[in-house]
Design a protein that fits this description.
The chain has about 200 residues and is of the alpha/beta class. Helix content is about 35%, strand content about 25%. The strands form 2 sheets. The chain has a 7-stranded mixed beta sheet, sandwiched between helices. Strand 4, helix 4 and strand 5 form a beta-alpha-beta unit. The structure holds 5-O-phosphono-beta-D-ribofuranosylamine (GRF). This is Phosphoribosylglycinamide formyltransferase.
Length: about 200
C-alpha cells in the first residue's frame, strides 16, 4: 500500500513514519512527501530517505481552492491508499476533504475533543489540566473534529512549561502515529459516516 505524507515543518512525525517503514512496521510505503513550505526540514528528511519530496508553496496560488486543486493533482499522481497529515498547517477546503474522506488521517497534539485548534499545550497549561496528550483522527470537514482512532495521554506536572509538555507529547505522537497508519493499511480502520471502526467495532 502507498502513503503520501503532507507536512509544513520539521517533520519529526514524518521521521517516525519513515523509521517505521525502514523497520517494516508501517505496513506500506511512503511514496511522496509534499510540503506547502518550500524549505521545510521535513523535505530534507524525505530526500535523505530516498522519498519523492515535493514543495508546493501555497503563496504561489491565488486562492485556497487553487492550492487545494494543485495539491490534489500532486497527491493523485502518486495513487495513495492513505494521505497522512503530519504537521500540515493548512485549513483544507471541504472539496479536498471530501476527495480523500475515509483515507486521510491527522495527528493533533491534544486529547480530542479537548483543545481543537492551535497552541494546545499553552491552553492546557493555562487551564491547569493534569492530563494532556495527542490524538490520531480521520480528517473530516470539521477542523480537528474527525472521529478519533488512537490517543496517548501524558501527566502534566506543576513544573511543566510549554516546551517540556510539547516535548513529552511529541514522543507519544511518534509512538501512536505509525500504529494508526499500520492499522489503516491493514484495512482495520474504517470511517463510517462520522464514526470510526476498528475490525468493525465502533471506536
Ligand atoms: C506536532 O505537534 C503535531 O501534533 C502538530 O504539529 C506538530 C508537527 O510536528 N500537528 P512535526 O513537524 O511532525 O515535528
Amino acid at each position: 500500500p502507498r502513503v503520501v505524507v503532507l507536512i509544513s515543518g520539521g517533520g519529526t512525525n514524518l521521521q517516525a513514519l519513515i523509521e517505521a517503514q525502514q523497520h517494516d512496521e508501517l505496513g506500506g510505503e511512503i511514496v511522496a512527501v509534499v510540503s506547502n513550505v518550500a524549505d521545510a526540514y521535513g523535505l530534507k528528511r524525505a530526500r535523505d530517505a530516498g522519498i519523492d519530496a515535493v514543495a508546493l508553496p501555497h503563496r504561489e496560488y491565488d486562492s485556497r481552492e487553487a492550492f487545494d486543486s494543485a495539491l490534489t493533482k500532486v497527491i493523485e499522481r502518486h495513487e495513495p491508499d492513505l494521505v497522512v497529515l503530519a504537521g500540515f498547517m493548512r485549513i483544507l477546503t471541504p472539496r479536498f476533504v471530501q476527495r480523500f474522506l475515509g483515507r486521510m488521517i491527522n495527528i493533533h497534539p491534544s486529547l480530542l475533543p479537548a483543545y481543537q485548534g492551535l497552541h494546545t499545550h499553552r491552553r492546557a497549561l493555562q487551564d491547569g489540566v493534569t492530563e494532556h496528550g495527542c490524538s490520531v483522527h480521520f480528517v473530516t470537514e470539521e477542523l480537528d473534529g474527525g472521529p478519533v482512532l488512537v490517543q496517548a495521554a501524558v501527566n502534566v506536572t506543576p513544573d511543566d512549561d510549554e516546551d517540556s509538555l510539547k516535548a513529552r507529547v511529541l514522543t507519544r505522537e511518534h509512538l501512536i502515529f505509525p500504529i494508526a497508519v499500520r492499522w489503516f493499511l491493514e484495512g482495520r480502520l474504517r470511517l463510517d459516516g462520522n464514526l470510526a471502526t476498528i475490525d468493525g467495532y465502533p471506536l
